Amino acid sequence: MKYLFAQPAKKRFAWELRTAIKSLTDLGVKKSDIVLLFAEEDQSVVNDFSDYDIHVYPDERFDKSYIPSIRPYLWWKFLSEDEEREQETYVYLDSDTVVLDLSIFNLRPTKSRWYCSDTVGYLGYRYIQSVTNSQIVFEAMTEAIKVPQPWIESIEKNSGGAQWVIKSPKAGYWHDVYVNSIVLYRALEPLDTSLQKWTAEMWAQLWTMYHY
């Protein structure tokens, strides 16, 4: 099992990463099992983490205006380099995470069943229906990612995100998440709504699964 983080090589993420990584190594995770994906920016940040499995990529996104899209973009680049990486099991974490107990990751994900944190309160169907101009927003969202509205309602209880345990992720899936996150954010940005637009990348990751 690998523990993976993806972010720009910025100092603002460095202290978060140090804390997150320390929480893992204190629990016995090997440094070689900690994978850090960076978008090129500040080489000094990359140098600070040379003890870990580091991969650095130029930021060649077609649209850089939506910052969180860098995360699925980095996943895509990482998996595209080596097909063997698509056979691995990963714990996918945010840099601002502190892990207190590794046993929470003792799960059995499969190619078609991944596990994640409970984020239904701000990703689920009922949340979307509770925001201002909800119907316009919902139609824009489902059109952007090309998913049927009844399907979104049917996965209400499984509308998770944030921290993931995933098995055999495919490069093509992460490419689509990267593109869909930008397309979705563009669709949401001009709308007058109380929806948390900045979490478009989380919906993209969850809803793109419909196509796989």
From TrEMBL:
Domain of life, source organism: Bacteria
UniProt protein name: Putative phage protein
Phylogenetic classification of the source organism: Bacteria, Bacillati, Bacillota, Bacilli, Lactobacillales
